[in-house]
Amino acid sequence: MAGPIPELEERATRCARRLCEADRVLLASHIDADGLTSAAIAAQALERAAIPFETVFEKQLDADAVADIAATDYDTVLFTDFGSGQLDIIGDHEDAGDFTPVIADHHQPADRETEYHLNPLLFGIDGASELSGAGASYVLARALAEEADQSVAADGGAVAVDSGTPARADNRDLAALAVVGAVGDMQASGGELHGANERIVAEGVEAGVLETGKDLALYGKQTRPLPKLLEYATDVRIPGISNDEAGALRFLEDLDLELQREEDGEWRRWADLENEEKRTVASALVRRAVSRGVPATKIESLVGTAYVLCEEPVGTELRDASEFSTLLNATARYERADVGLGVCLGDREGALEQARTLLRNHRRNLSEGIDLVTREGVTHEDNVQWFHAGDRIRETIVGIVAGMAMGNEGISRSKPIIAFAQKNDEEVKVSARGTHSLVRKGLDLSVVMGEASRAVDGDGGGHDVAAGATVPIGREEEFIEMAEEIVGEQLS
Ligand code: C5P
Ligand code: C5P
Ligand code: C5P
Ligand code: ZN
């Protein structure tokens, strides 16, 4: 595991001190799982440090959004999970005296610096795979706890700080949300989190809010009834089980286990099984995969590290980092960031119920979107493949759909996928997704999206493995030609 990173922590301390000097703070964050968990971490840290604040969410931090922020009368603005890529715009407002920016982000920074800028990429840490926006916010939260503590000591304890238990006073309990953010940004590779993320996991385990262990790497271990867990798990396709309702049922019924509840005959969920039962199901699954000729490397990826939020009730989305992050995307990507934030901040009634309703809708949209793309197919260029969803897939989820569709019939995993969806009457949203193996060969989609979009009067950025852009309607073909050329150079 990576050791502590002193430069990162020093920068966090500098940012935390600046926040402690503010009378009040405007907290601005991005609308996805990582952005929501970033905001929830920052909000709790500010509250515990007794710094008054207000929270706003933006789909995208463009010039208009920054101008709106500048128009408020906040002197200090904390940006989480975005801000680095928009430093040119933000810097202009800073120069004009509109506000002082404090940034906790992990996106590729624009060509400009500012004093209170916390980003792993400034310190040689990979912002796509080692630290997320929520991770950067967590590092800031840890520094804030230290600073607030020190101001208590300096004032002889006059500042009211809600210290709670020792684990809470140092903000380590917020590690659970940081892990949800990292998993939501798909920072886990080879079945687990790496680098700075791993340190956060360790702190969460010490604080008693996280448990980790090798487990079946399927989505839905907490909430899906066993047959659905197996039927819907298609990352590793097991013939006769994946996408096969009757097959999945038969497989489970053939095991010598009581997998249906005695009371009502309902199927149990993975999270309800005893360890011995889990082992039996898992080894039968592996045997079946082997006998059906699933390649060994694929079979290995059936097992991974599970990140369990052990203070949350068994059988809920909140207990599994992956399910939690999808629940959050289901709120924030549908203009209900307030609901997701409520869930992160502990609202286990109204907000959670609303989030679950939104999740059902999100799932339906994802599955319809994936079906659509797979049915209609993508256009293959030499170096990229692409599709245009028009208004048939929401622009806020077209990237998730593109990523999940990769590997389906006709959709290659050996070149990046570029997806277009209508944004409004003038603009088209572009989302691009690659694989970690393409990144190892030189792919950097953040450069591709940035350069290709600016060549057609748009703008974009993001990470090497996942990036996005906005371009004017009608410039899509030109955009693809540019992207095709840049990807060709990167992979040559
Ligand atoms: O803006 P932000 O960094 O939070 O979002 C990153 C996006 O990239 C997420 O939607 C995440 O699902 C996506 N991603 C991906 N595949 C990866 C890494 C990230 O689809 N390997
Ligand atoms: O929606 P989100 O981007 O957070 O999904 C993260 C991952 O969780 C997806 O790439 C997919 O593997 C899995 N997922 C799933 N079924 C869903 C939602 C997400 O398998 N309904
Ligand atoms: O929206 P999507 O999920 O495709 O975004 C993928 C990544 O690209 C995210 O990290 C997002 O913040 C980034 N992005 C960006 N500029 C845009 C659109 C997306 O930096 N105009
Ligand atoms: Zn992020």
TrEMBL record:
Statement: the UniProt record of this protein carries the keyword Hydrolase: yes
GO molecular function terms noted in the UniProt entry: exonuclease activity; nucleic acid binding
Residues covered by the DDH domain: 25-142
UniProt keyword Hydrolase, yes or no: yes
Keywords of the record: Exonuclease, Hydrolase, Nuclease
SUPFAM superfamilies: DHH phosphoesterases
Domain DHHA1: 391-488
Limits of the DHH-CID domain: 218-303
Descriptive protein name: RecJ-like exonuclease
Organism: Halopiger aswanensis
Taxonomic lineage: Archaea, Methanobacteriati, Methanobacteriota, Stenosarchaea group, Halobacteria
